[in-house]
Backbone:
């Protein structure tokens, strides 16, 4: 049996132009820990910086537009303020030698009108109306 420290898992690997310190990827974990404006804050900076030793971090699902939002308190990347919040996250990860990529997210018709601007029905790729769940 081989020694765990000699495993390829812990060896650097090139992915595109990035050289990852190891072959461990942190899967996206949506945490719903941002405010109403979808701006990553200090808690997000700390969370991702703590995990920078993974070869690659894939961020939590990140809304590409207000219409793409599927859950409350999830981050976005469609306003200048949100981009600035993510810049702090990426800077913290890079400062610890890590690599991070953003999971872009649009939930389509699964969203709920309460999360949509003006309470509109969600945007979807077809005219099929969403089956909205009723709350008892």
Residues:
């Amino acid at each position: 049996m081989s020694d765990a420290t000699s495993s390829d898992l812990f060896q650097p690997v090139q992915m595109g132009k990035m050289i990852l310190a190891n072959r461990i990827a942190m899967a996206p974990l949506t945490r719903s820990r941002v405010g109403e404006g979808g701006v990553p804050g200090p808690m997000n900076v700390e969370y991702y910086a703590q995990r920078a030793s993974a070869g690659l971090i894939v961020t939590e699902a990140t809304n590409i537009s207000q219409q793409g939002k599927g859950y409350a308190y999830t981050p976005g990347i469609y306003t200048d303020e949100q981009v600035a919040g993510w810049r702090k996250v990426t800077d913290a990860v890079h400062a610890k030698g890590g690599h991070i990529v953003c999971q872009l997210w649009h939930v389509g018709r699964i969203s709920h009108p309460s999360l949509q601007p003006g309470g509109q029905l969600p945007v979807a790729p077809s005219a099929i109306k969403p089956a909205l769940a009723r709350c008892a």
In short: The chain has one domain: 4-119. Helices lie at 42-50, 80-95. The CA atoms of residues 38 and 56 lie 23 Å apart.
